[in-house]
Amino acid sequence: MEHLKSTLTICFAMIFLISCTEKSKTKVNRPTLKKEIMERTGYTEETYSKVYKYYWVTEDTSDLKFDVYERKADSTVMFSSEHHKQIDFAVLLDSVNGAFTKINSDFDLSKLESLIFKQPLYYPDLNRELSQAYEARYGKVAVDYPTLQQFLLSAPITLKINTFLKPLNKKVKSYSIEKFHLLSLEQIKKFYPDMQFENDPDFTLFGSGIYVELENKVE
Are 102 and 35 in contact (CB under 8 A)? Predict the structure, then answer.
């Protein structure tokens, strides 16, 4: 009997130690947000009072980074996402949201004036959504900028960004996609051979990224 008790005690102790080890591993593996104060030269030094880069440190090879700029003239803040790999837009917004507490300690996010994202093909979920809605309304013909503006304002992307911005009392005012045109799936595969487009539509809205101008939300 005593032998059985000793055996059970040892087993429970081992289980406890394994459990603690696993919990410890979980804590260690949690991503942490790092900050880098960027050197300002030339135009950047003339225009911005500070420029910081934030990035998550994880075990994987994620290349997601955030650049935040504060203008000298009026202290307004500009936020830009930086990455080379594809990522779902929903995941990106969640990652940004997780970083905002830290960023808000360095910048006054009540003065956040603009967001800059990469072009839609970098966000598979957003790309499918935008292309399908665009084709249903305009076919496969590139529209003018005012029409594109109204399309994006009425698209689900606006609701997603507005929901994301709600804690900051901000909302989308306007969009800009410079050099806007449509790019076929064949062209995409040619220019971006390392990307995956298995379930994507046969064209994408293309340009030099998505610029989102913000304004204060009036209750």
Answer: yes
Other Cβ atoms within 10 Å of 182 Cβ, number: 19
Amino acid at 166: K
Pick the closest to residue 68 from 23, 115, 32 (CA basis): 115
The mean pLDDT value for 142-154 works out to 96
Query: Is 50 exceeded by the pLDDT of residue 10?
Result: no
What pTM, to 2 d.p., does this model score?
0.81
Per-residue pLDDT reduced to its tens digit, 62-98 = 678 999 999 999 999 999 999 999 999 999 999 999 9
Rounded to the nearest 10 degrees, the angle between the axes of helix 89-104 and helix 156-165 is: 20
* 118 contacts 81 by C-beta, under 8 angstroms: yes
Q: Are 69 and 76 in contact (CB under 8 A)?
A: no
Tokens of 7: 């055996």
Asked whether the CA dihedral 119, 122, 126, 128 is positive or negative, the reply is positive
Farthest-apart Cα atoms in the chain, separation:
85
- Count of CB atoms situated within 10 Å of the CB of 81: 21
